Amino acid sequence: MESVIKSHRRIQISEQVRERLAIAISWLSMALFLYTAYAKTVDHDRFLNGLLKVQFIRYMAVPISYAVPSIELIVAYLLLLPQTSKYGLYSFIAVMAAFTAYIASAMIWENTLPCHCGGAIEKLSWSQHLWFNLAFIVLAIIALRLVKLNTSLKN
Fold first, then answer.
1. Are 85 and 78 a contacting pair, CB within 8 Å?
2. pTM, whole model, 2 decimals?
3. How many C-beta atoms surround the C-beta of residue 30 within 10 A?
4. Where is the Methylamine utilisation protein MauE domain (predicted)?
5. DSSP strand E in the chain: where?
């Protein structure tokens, strides 16, 4: 009996392209957080009122209303600097995972679903919002993978 050996072809991407893709994803993630932090800050009362409508976080709505845009700005700053962009990507993934868990739990336990994300993102349905977040998480993971590949090639 003959054995068949299959060769796995991997897409070969140059180090420069990997680096540029990672930077592009970092900047896209940074832009998302800058945009949403801005929207939540400019219309803070609306953001706070939306949080107050969610039963399981109502008691923490005020601190959350200040913490979320602050955290988004800090993560955006980490993503901006080349020396901290890797930590920024990890932080971005963590924050987006928390937002995604919040959306999923709200979809399960809340009767009404007020969106208070700010700007054009509010136009998404809750399930679209969930997929939007998951897509950004996947992009950030890809960027981390690209950064790790570049690091391992240089060593």
1. yes
2. 0.85
3. 20
4. 20-144
5. none
Residue with tokens 């998302």: 32
**DSSP for residue 11:** -
Q: Give residue 31's identity as a one-letter amino acid code.
A: A
pLDDT at 148: 81
- The whole-angstrom separation of Cα 94 and Cα 7 is 36
Close Cβ partners of 134 (under 8 Å, ≥ 6 residues apart): 100
Predicted local confidence at residue 151, as pLDDT: 60
Show the low-confidence residues of the chain (pLDDT under 70). Answer: 1-11, 113-119, 149-155
d(CA 88, CA 47): 24
Buried b (16+ CB within 10 A) or exposed e, 33-46: bbbbbebbbeeeee
To 5 degrees, how large is the angle CA 40–CA 42–CA 43?
65
